[in-house]
Amino acid sequence: MNHFLSVHDVNDLNALVSAGLAAKKTPFADQHLGQNKTIGLMFFNQSFRTRISTQKAAENLGLKVISLNVGSDSWGLEMEDGVIMNGTKAEHVKEAAAVIGRFCNIVGIRSFATLADQAADYAEQVFHQFRKYAGVPIVNLESATRHPLQSLADCITIAEFKKTQRPKVVLTWLPHIKPLPQAVANSFSEWMHQSDVEFVITHPKGYELAPEFAGNAPVIYDQDEALKGAHFVYGKNWSSFSQYGQILTEGRDWMIDDAKMSLTDGGYFMHCLPVRRNLKVTDSVLDGPQSLVIEQAANREWSAQAVLREILLSL
Ligand SMILES: NCCC[C@H](NC(=O)CCC(=O)O)C(=O)O
Ligand SMILES: NC(=O)OP(=O)(O)O
């Protein structure tokens, strides 16, 4: 593997899930791979899980880690080519990417959607620019449209907890008070399409994901109907794609509670975190035995380790 930007960079998803599970069993088996090598982690947005799980995974592989918050630890970065830099950004990505590429063997980047300009967000300019100018493998730590390390951790979690060969997995929209990106939902859908599952999406009308991410998954607008017989309920809020970045409905009745979970086939609840309690999902579901959110977060370490291992093997 060279870059890890989406599921399309993965040759064999089952093998990558198995590599994650193997790393979980023997975390230090590949410590020699990263010896005398460094990974740089650049955050344009907040992070808790991604930062600590990726650092942990990198260290398990023997890598040294440099982590920084762009714009506060380092200079604000201009992404547009050919502009007169007389605004707030002091440094151009051409130099910044090239410089970090000299210090680091791998660069991880987190840069969310602005939700202001659909075309710009879906063009993934930050990642294109870093890929062009860094000269080293780039890892997506959540971009405007995708969160593949999260999706891989989700696949690892489903593999660990599934009781049937081909479980029913329901991606459900949840209510929120502010507009959130589509990245986690897009990415989860894209990975589920590559997995041996029955995959269904449910959301209020107007929250359709971009067609390239929704694919041919059935979209059911009645949440109760969609949840029937589910083995995994994957909750996430996202803002509208068609009316880009907007909240179209409060949708408070879409919160997952015990009554909704009782429609499933003893289903598990999953969420990438952070989650706002009693807005998206009730305390009783999150604190109950069907919640996988902590297991899922813990698997972020093994997802990152599987990906970094593959990249190190191809350096
Ligand atoms: N990396 C996990 C999700 C990150 C982000 N959530 C958030 O921004 C939640 C913020 C809040 O609840 O205020 C998202 O939805 O893409
Ligand atoms: N799930 C996830 O990516 O968490 P952070 O945003 O805290 O990294």
Report on this model:
The chain has 315 residues and is of the alpha/beta class. It folds into 2 domains: 155 residues, Aspartate/ornithine carbamoyltransferase (Rossmann fold), CATH 3.40.50; 148 residues, Aspartate/ornithine carbamoyltransferase (Rossmann fold, 3-Layer(aba) Sandwich), CATH 3.40.50.1370. The protein is 36% helix and 14% strand. A 5-stranded parallel beta sheet has the order 9-8-7-10-11. A 4-stranded parallel beta sheet has the order 2-1-5-6, with helices on both faces. The protein has a two-stranded parallel ribbon with strand order 3-4. Helix 2 links the parallel strand 1 and strand 2. Helix 6 crosses helix 13. The relative contact order is 0.17. It binds N~2~-(3-carboxypropanoyl)-L-ornithine and phosphoric acid mono(formamide)ester (CP). The site of N~2~-(3-carboxypropanoyl)-L-ornithine (SUO) has 9 residues, from helix 7.
Write the layout of secondary structure elements.
Blueprint: H1 13-25, E1 38-43, H2 49-60, E2 64-69, E3 77-78, E4 91-92, H3 93-103, E5 106-110, H4 118-123, H5 125-134, E6 138-140, H6 148-161, E7 168-173, H7 183-192, E8 198-202, H8 211-214, E9 219-220, H9 223-227, E10 232-236, H10 258-261, E11 268-270, H11 283-287, H12 293-298, H13 300-313
Parallel strand pairs: 1-2, 1-5, 3-4, 5-6, 7-8, 7-10, 8-9, 10-11
Bound molecules: N~2~-(3-carboxypropanoyl)-L-ornithine (SUO) and phosphoric acid mono(formamide)ester.
